[in-house]
């Protein structure tokens, strides 16, 4: 479920305080970005949830778990530098975050990334988790031949990670 609004405008959206329920979900999701996955980190994901970022499209909870459970293998550290909950009336059933995350690779190289994170919710569960680097829409098959090719690559990347990284965070 790609974001259809003009994402360059999301950086200027006002902030709002999260509800107590949203605070719990946000803390769980941030633990994933901080490369500290636990069983509780995935408590609010639907079994059929989808995760989409510029690298992968993971379909189903086990595939999503593999994507995030693989982060400690690639990063020495991952720190949430800043985030804010966006007040976006165009997405009434979503939690939207403006997230700045600093990644330190095992090689020592560092990268700070600002992303728009959209958690589409249904009945208190995350159905779709979209991460858009620098608030730029992810390409999809709807973007023509190159979009279809890129979407195929992202699905293949997710399947490869799913085959090599356990879905159980206790087996890392």
Helical content stands at: 25-40%
| Helix/strand order | HEEHHEEEEH
Question: Which term fits the overall shape?
Answer: globular
Poorly predicted tracts of residues: 1-6
Individual helix count = 4
Alpha-carbon distance between the two ends: 30 Å
Main beta sheet: strand number and arrangement? 6 strands, mixed
Quaternary structure type: single chain
For the largest beta sheet, what order do the strands appear in spatially?
2-1-6-5-4-3
Task: Provide mean pLDDT, rounded.
Answer: 91
Percent strand = 25-35%
Backbone CA Rg = 15 Å
Main structural class: alpha+beta
Number of strands: 6
How would you explain this protein's 3D organization?
- There is one protein chain.
- The protein has helices at residues 20-33, 61-69, 71-74, 145-164; strands at residues 45-52, 57-59, 75-85, 94-105, 110-122, 125-133.
- Helix 2 (61-69) crosses helix 4 (145-164).
- Residues 1-6 have low confidence and may be disordered.
- 27% of the residues lie in helices and 33% in strands.
- It has a six-stranded mixed beta sheet.
- The longest helix has 20 residues, at 145-164.
- It is α+β, with helices and mostly antiparallel strands.
């Amino acid at each position: 479920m790609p974001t259809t609004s003009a994402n360059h405008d999301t950086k200027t959206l006002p902030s709002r305080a999260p509800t107590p329920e949203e605070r719990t979900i946000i803390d769980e999701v941030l633990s994933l970005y901080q490369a500290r996955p636990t069983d509780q980190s995935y408590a609010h994901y639907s079994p059929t949830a989808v995760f989409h970022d510029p690298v992968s499209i993971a379909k189903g909870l086990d595939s999503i778990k593999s994507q995030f459970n693989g982060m400690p293998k690639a990063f020495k550290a991952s720190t949430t530098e800043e985030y804010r909950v966006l007040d976006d009336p165009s997405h009434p059933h979503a939690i939207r975050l403006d997230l700045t995350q600093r990644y330190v690779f095992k090689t020592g190289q560092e990268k700070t990334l600002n992303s728009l994170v959209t958690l589409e919710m249904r009945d208190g569960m995350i159905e779709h988790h979209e991460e858009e680097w620098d608030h730029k829409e992810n390409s999809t098959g709807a973007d023509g031949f190159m979009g279809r090719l890129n979407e195929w690559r992202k699905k293949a990347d997710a399947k490869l990670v799913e085959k090599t990284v356990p879905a159980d965070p206790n087996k890392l």
